[in-house]
Amino acid sequence: MADTPVIRLVDVRKVYKLKSGDVPALRGITFDIMKGEFVAIMGPSGSGKSTLMNMIGCLDVPTSGNLYLEGRNVREMSDDELTFLRRDEIGFIFQKFNLIPLLTAFENTEYPIILKTGHMDEEGKTMRLLKMVGLSEELVTHRPSELSGGQQQRVAIARALVNDPALLLCDEPTGNLDSVTGSQIMEILEDLNKEGRTIVMVTHDPHIAEYAHRTIRIIDGNVATA
Amino acid sequence: MKQKKNIFFQLAMRNVRLNLTRSLLAALGIIIGVVAITTMGILGANIQLAVSSNLSSNANSLIITPDTGGGGGFGGGMGAKTTALLSDNQVREIELAAGHNTVVPIHSGSDLIQVGTNDKKRVAIYGLDPDKVQDFVEIADGSSLRGASAGALVGSTLAADQNIAVGTRIKVGDETTGTSEVVRVAGILKPKGFGLDLMPDNALIVPDRYYTSVYGDQGEYQQVDVLVPSIADIPAVKDAIDKKMNKKVKVVQITDSGALLQTINSTIGQITLFITLLGGISLLVASVSIFNVMMMSVKDRINEIGILRSIGTTRGEIRKMFIYEAFIIGGVGAGIGGLVSFIGGFILVGLLGTSKYFFTFQSLIYVPYGVAIGIVICLLSGLYPAAKAANLNPIEALRSE
Question: Whole-model pTM above 0.95?
């Protein structure tokens, strides 16, 4: 079990075909991320780390090379299969929180359960998670526009965890937060990792990257140090 | 017990509520469109019902009249003598051709009548074989004709107009020319309406022998009706008579009363359809506005679509969400439209004539029709925007502000 990496990239390349010519974003990336790891992916803007992030998040597929998520090759999957993979195996935490504006904090957290099962949450998991990330109970009926950035990110973390994903994928999770709130959020992620969650975090902030156990640097579409 | 939840319907519902003004305006377009087609349909149906109820129900007779050479075309040039009346011999030939169907020769003319001290009035007078009278008309009051006696049946309109009852004596003819006769009313007829065979509502029916004793024309008839009980036989019977009677030259005209009534009915139907289609233009305009609202909704929610897609919502589910939105707008619009057309249609039909036929199936069926068409139009208008939303690239959608 421990032998199968959560993520395995083998010579992953991505080329964007533009009118002005082909633009290579990833030039052959290979690494594994094992279960229980906390990995930071760092790199200057334009280095291809966002592209890499999209690949790992199954939002995009490699032009060549293979990416395995829990041993499954994403290149062979249909759009719906990729969607189900995102729903069931990946918890997304975005810089801009990306909660659904029409839904309350509770409904935002519950949404992936309904997506997966077609039923409402009757196990109380939604409330348990919201409590765990530190959202006070009177806020659960509020819509995202009525919450602070830190509160929204807490809801987003609860949402990311609700379907028990194999991987938490964080894209600049503290980028839109002040430093105090940012460290609170990082502490939550650290705790989750201690509980055994695999976390991959993209950031350009070295302080934030320090929370991770391992840092992968991407420069010009290549891995600089593994 | 797991509680099901249609989260996509919820999202659609909330988005409609969030953009209430915009959604209501689009729904208003649908309301107008549905009202336009539905009330036009109801109106047409009511006109049709009113007209056909005035048309004779005797749709199963062939009316044979002497050919007066009117539309003879080339055949008219053959020097054929056109008879003004049909003779006994011709009636017998028709009987042969008509097989077992009832053949009724009819005398018809008109004369002045006077009831009591009322003003004289010119009415149609039919002379019929008393045994066959009841094949044509129904008697509302009194009894039918008997033998050659000077009894008469009076049409409903004439009876009401002149205060005629069973037993009333009617003076027929003009004393000054010496042809005045008195007939006793044996029965009053039920209303029959407009027909091609007989139009008895404003007429007198007398026994054929009495008719010929007063007006002559013995053995000569203005018209012969063939009653064909089974409508399916009509074309064959018509053909047989045509072959028999119009061998070399056209001697008689054969009119199929049912076919003519059908023509009238279908003409009204076509007019109704045309007017309804005109109403449909407003529905088309409404569909454009739904389309527009849906496109705006997709554009406003690109980022949200990106979020939904990234956390595991399939294309199909996104599509469903937007189709629900179109359905909600369309359902509300068409529903209100149906209600308004029901009330408005009732008022309109009442203003233009009688609302007697409003609560009939043929009339009210236009309400569910209109509502269904309204909803379908909305769904169709929502298809493209929904597909557009579903096919957005999640990465680009997430990136958009």
Answer: no
